[in-house]
């Protein structure tokens, strides 16, 4: 209990005291997770839309794969990316392992199925007659997908929040492909693990509070987008 | 001779093993209006979706303006058709962009599309709502936006799937004539699916009756209502009195039918039937006159003595249920049409001219 209280004090001291190391950890966490979420959005939204709007042989398997991907353990994603980026691996030549780019790749791999699955279900939840109406109005496939995605924008924002929440809070992949190198790939979660192993519970709590605060702030900001403009009533 | 705008030939639409539509032939001329009625599940919506090329036919073919439409030409033909669904199905953008959506899909630049959409919104009297979100609109306003969107692309054919079913009577009474007028102005053909007989009659002179995926009647609504081709058609078109009986004589296009022991009526018919044949006779309730018992009946009219069972007041008319020596009869009388008011228990004579009664050409089932 005293750790919790001193952790709060420590968190305040670290932030207010302009601790350069803490700030670099916070900024790196934000950068890696936000970029990974954007990548997941770019890949996952079209993937989810294609799955929702087309039928092809193996469609059910693909949908099942995406849903299973939602439950992909971060440590497995980390392992896959590690193997790929390993010095002797297929992409070893780029020397990306233990870099923020490797962390972004691993986190995008975690978040993409989340975004794709939620996009898929968001489009499916729309009244099917909207699609019929679009076709009847003469929309082509791309226009249909775009207008339906706009109709489903509220659940899509939830998809972004879920994707971001999944990556900012994960530690396994970040640790495995980033390596928790001080000043280079140390993020809030990996730093917390380290501080706990050193017995610095107050610092660990401080980092956790910052993590919570960031998660809350970012999801709150995304949630603002979700608010509908109030219709003008007579 | 110009080919019909829309023509179905030997058309069948299936869903798995079930045949949803089976239409040997159907034609709609340019600028023609038709109301499509039928019970739930009769295939009205399938008919409309098929006509809009939103649903493929399993057999037969559909031509549009004389050209047989295949899967590769459906998209270009669809641009000459607009569909309005049961719900307005407006998108989550403002009213103007909703109205311009079809034009945008047709490749028009935004400024041009929105100018044209504004004209249409103005035509439907809702230009002042351009910047509003669809969620703040009333049912009538949303229906107008959906109609403006459908008209914006200047279609040759409008397919309307119960567009007013969610509206209150007041909005409906205003919108239907307005829709008819817009269609006439533009010379656009239209098929209106509706559950409401009054709406069907008000919309178009031509009525198409669909039952279990088949067209059971197609023609002038007044003729169908007075000369229904079958019992089913009579019921669907709202003929209140269908009286079973037996043919006792024929002369000059009229048959004498015994509807109860000793009670004979004269009814029009289109074919000679052997004496003794069981038949059914329709008499529209609005064509039955109630005359106080003992008063004179016009010469040549059918007259049945009856007792008034009940009188129900409906908007604009009274519906009177009568018991004769044989079947029950319904009679309708407009308010203010004169004559004494009947009360339950009164003895009256139900009188109607022979050509108000009609022997259904198709024999009774069984």
Structural notes for this entry:
The complex is a heterodimer of chains A (234) and B (366). In chain A, 76% of the residues lie in helices and 0% in strands. Chain A is mostly helical and 234 residues long. The N and C termini of chain A lie far apart (55 Å). Residues 230-234 of chain A have low confidence and may be disordered. Chain B has a six-stranded mixed β-sheet, with helices on both faces. Chain B has a five-stranded antiparallel β-sheet with strand order 13-12-11-14-20. Chain B has helices at 44-51, 74-78, 95-105, 110-123, 139-152, 169-186, 197-203, 221-226, 231-236, and strands at 6-15, 18-28, 33-37, 59-64, 67-68, 81-84, 157-161, 189-193, 206-211, 214-220, 241-251, 254-260, 263-268, 278-283, 289-292, 302-314, 317-323, 328-334, 347-352, 358-359. The longest helix of chain B is centred in the middle third of the chain and has 18 residues, at 169-186. Chain B contains nine helices and 20 strands. Chain B is of the alpha+beta class and 366 residues long. Classes of the chains: A mainly alpha (234), B alpha+beta (366). Chain A binds chain B through residues 127, 129-130, 132-140, 143, 147, 150-151, 153, 228-229, 231-233, and chain B through 49, 52, 54, 75, 78-79, 81-83, 85, 87, 89, 91-93, 101-102, 105-106, 132-133, 135-136, 149, 153.
Report the count of strand segments of chain A: 0
Q: Profile the largest sheet of chain A.
A: none
Termini separation of chain A comes to 55 Å
Whole-number average pLDDT of chain B?
91
Mean pLDDT of chain A: 87
Oligomerization status of the protein chains: heterodimer
Trace the largest sheet of chain B across and list its strands: 6-7-8-3-9-10
Tally of alpha and pi helices of chain A: 11
**Percent range for β-strand residues of chain B:** 35-45%
What is the radius of gyration of chain B computed over CA atoms, rounded to a whole number of angstroms? 24 Å
- Looking at the structure, what is the overall shape of chain B? globular
Beta-strand proportion of chain A: under 5%
Order of helices and strands of chain A: HHHHHHHHHHH
> Which two protein chains have the largest interface (Cβ within 8 Å of the partner's Cβ), and how many residues from each?
A-B, 22 and 25 residues
